[in-house]
Amino acid sequence: MELTVYLAGEIHTNWREELQKLAEERKLPLSFVAPQTNHDRSDDIGEAILGEQPGNLYKDHAASDINNFRTQVMLQKADVVIALFGEQYRQWNTAMDASAAITLNKPTIIIRPESLIHPLKELSNKANVTVETVEQALDVLSYIYE
Fold first, then answer.
1. CA triplet 27, 102, 6: central angle to 5 degrees?
2. Inter-axis angle of helices 92-103 and 56-77, to 10 degrees?
3. What proportions of the chain, in percent to the nearest 5, are helix, strand and coil?
4. Cα-based distances in Å from 11 to 1, 17, 94
5. What b-and-e string marks burial along 17-33, b requiring 16 or more CB atoms within 10 Å of the CB?
6. Is the pLDDT at 65 greater than 90, yes or no?
7. Does residue 61 lie within any of the structural domains?
8. What's this model's pTM, rounded to 2 decimal places?
């Protein structure tokens, strides 16, 4: 049984590639989807499709509509969601994706460092599992196959 895993989280580090490599090494039958990880593409998609907008507010609104549409489709197709919160970047999109996944009743794993226990307490309480490392998240998924 192959599971599709949506990888929510910041797009500035290679955590997705590391997780996918570890999953391959464990021979876990997983496929992965994610938000748009090309920052410029994400920011410019509204104008790329709808044409030049009359200002930054409208540019962001057009891009948000299309990015939210894409995310909704990906989340609905996913069997499991992993949402990574790191210490280095602001995590608004991660929080939004995790909240949407929980609302869709998708099994959700949150990865967060110890320093974010307090700020993420409500979200962690709603998720199925909260861990501190990518390896622990994969341990949870591995357990499904035992």
1. 35
2. 40
3. 55, 15, 30
4. 28, 11, 10
5. eebbeebeeeebebebb
6. yes
7. yes
8. 0.93
How confident is the model over 27-52, as pLDDT tens digits? 999 999 999 999 999 999 999 999 99
* 52: helix, strand or coil: coil
Same domain for 46 and 73? yes
- Overall number of domains in the chain: 2
Q: Which residues pair with 9 in a beta bridge?
A: 84
CB 97 within 8 A of CB 11: no
What's the mean pLDDT in 127-137? 97
Mean of all residue pLDDT scores within the chain: 95
DSSP classification of residue 116: G
Q: What range does the domain containing 63 cover?
A: 34-77
Q: Are residues 28 and 54 in the same domain?
A: no
Distance CA 23, CA 51 (A): 40
**70 inside domain:** yes
Which structure tokens are listed for 112? Answer: 């967060």
Judge contact between 82 and 19, C-beta under 8 A.
yes
